């Protein structure tokens, strides 16, 4: 049977270069200079400062996702790495050079020649949380009780990140209530209140929260949603609500190196979701995960072809609440928990104790229109194409305007985290 082939090639401008090993024609390769060393032309997209910053922190996000996924290989993963990156970037405002460099390397800032990282970050946050995006993200730095904080730290924090630090009272019930109230206000009540007590020995607590409810450019017909089999593995299936569209317009490619079918569905607000579906039913998605970088995803976005297909996709409503502390400790950030220098914040020795993340993510049949966008003209195929997300898959929610990674998920069981 014929297959629509897409050989994806990408160079790594920032972060891990796992995709440069993918197959590509000779035309894909950068021309060598006189020294025999390949010269890599930077994509014009990444020359825009806000896009370059988005690529850097997205590469941090893919790193965080890989570690998080490896720590829970048999469980769903849901992350909005941007909220965690924002908290770390904000914290770096209070770090002296050694500690600042540690944070900036993890966020890939060392590969950016931008004298105003934090000003650009403000621009990025404004872009991705604009009302039409349906994406909410907020971060907060919480300090131990009775800490005296320097105003020289608070002012730039408020200017670039729009947040003020919170100092704990020492009363765990009141502190939890205050944090919950803040989360409710930031997320418009879309994320459930936490019952997790705030530990009494906190020195610095970072909190990142995010919520997204997508609206497809083309809505699904609710009458076509039905209970269908989802294959957890080669032997087990569960019945889940699956949305379907027999004539869906989507962007598609087959990556032969990763043995997966890639599809991209547009959302309103210049957003899109990219799905990675292995050719065989498997919970081992490591090979796909290792390939994920900002540049790889950007190249996919340019190379996928618009087609018409029979599409089925599970309705999703996922949430996550927990720590990503251990994941960050495994990402060369252990020194932040041991002996950092945050003397720009306070004269007292303080260190990172805990990093909390709360996220909510859902999609259903909702869409802006019952008909595909007139601008999307699918290629004519000589054979019918099916794309059924009825087995474990990875998805990436991406802001098309900046290239920022907003959510990433590993869905082994669509019934929940």
UniProtKB/TrEMBL annotation:
User: Which Pfam families would you find in this protein's record?
Assistant: Serpin (PF00079)
Any one of the GO BP annotations = negative regulation of angiogenesis
Which species? Answer: Lynx pardinus (Iberian lynx)
What GO cellular component entries does it have?
extracellular space
* Chief place of localization: secreted
GO molecular function annotation: serine-type endopeptidase inhibitor activity
Q: What is this protein called?
A: Pigment epithelium-derived factor
**Which subcellular locations apply to this protein?**
Secreted
Give the record's family classification: Belongs to the serpin family.
**Keyword line:** Glycoprotein, Secreted, Signal
Domain of life from the UniProt record: Eukaryota
Instruction: Note the PANTHER family from the entry.
Output: PIGMENT EPITHELIUM-DERIVED FACTOR, SERINE PROTEASE INHIBITOR, SERPIN
Keyword 4Fe-4S among record annotations = no
Q: Which residues form the Serpin domain?
A: 62-414
Q: Which residues form the signal peptide?
A: 1-19
SMART domains annotated for this entry? SERPIN
């Amino acid at each position: 049977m014929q297959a629509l082939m897409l050989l994806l090639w990408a160079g790594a401008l920032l972060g891990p270069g796992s995709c440069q090993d993918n197959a590509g024609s000779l035309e894909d390769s950068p021309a060598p200079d006189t020294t025999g060393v390949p010269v890599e032309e930077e994509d014009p997209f990444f020359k825009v400062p806000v896009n370059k910053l988005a690529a850097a922190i997205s590469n941090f996000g893919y790193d965080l996702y890989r570690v998080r996924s490896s720590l829970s290989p048999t469980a769903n993963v849901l992350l909005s790495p941007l909220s965690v990156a924002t908290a770390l970037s904000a914290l770096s405002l209070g770090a002296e050079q050694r500690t600042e460099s540690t944070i900036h390397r993890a966020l890939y800032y060392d590969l950016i020649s931008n004298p105003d990282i934090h000003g650009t970050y403000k621009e990025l946050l404004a872009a991705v949380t604009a009302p039409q995006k349906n994406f909410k993200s907020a971060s907060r730095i919480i300090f131990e009780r009775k800490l005296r904080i320097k105003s020289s730290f608070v002012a730039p924090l408020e200017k670039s990140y729009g947040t003020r630090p919170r100092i704990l009272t020492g009363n765990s019930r009141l502190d939890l209530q205050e944090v919950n109230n803040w989360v409710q206000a930031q997320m418009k009540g879309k994320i459930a209140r936490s019952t997790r007590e705030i530990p009494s020995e906190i020195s610095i607590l970072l909190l990142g929260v995010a919520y997204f409810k997508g609206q497809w450019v083309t809505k699904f017909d609710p009458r076509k949603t039905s209970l269908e089999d989802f294959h957890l593995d080669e032997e087990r299936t569960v019945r889940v609500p699956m949305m379907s569209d027999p004539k869906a317009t989507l962007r598609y490619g087959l990556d032969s190196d990763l043995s997966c079918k890639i599809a991209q569905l547009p959302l309103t607000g210049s957003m899109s979701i990219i799905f990675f579906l292995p050719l065989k039913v498997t919970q081992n998605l490591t090979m796909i995960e290792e390939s994920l970088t900002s540049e790889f995803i950007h190249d996919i976005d340019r190379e996928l072809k618009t087609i018409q297909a029979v599409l089925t996709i599970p309705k999703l409503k996922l949430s996550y609440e927990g720590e990503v502390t251990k994941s960050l400790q495994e990402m060369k950030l252990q020194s932040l928990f041991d002996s950092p220098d945050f003397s720009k914040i306070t004269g007292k020795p303080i260190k990172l104790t805990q990093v909390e993340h709360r996220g909510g993510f859902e999609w259903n049949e909702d869409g802006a229109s019952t008909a595909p966008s007139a601008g999307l003209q699918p290629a004519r195929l000589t054979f019918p194409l099916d794309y059924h997300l009825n087995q474990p898959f990875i998805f990436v929610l991406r802001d098309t305007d900046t290239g920022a990674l907003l959510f990433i998920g590993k869905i082994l069981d669509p019934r929940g985290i």
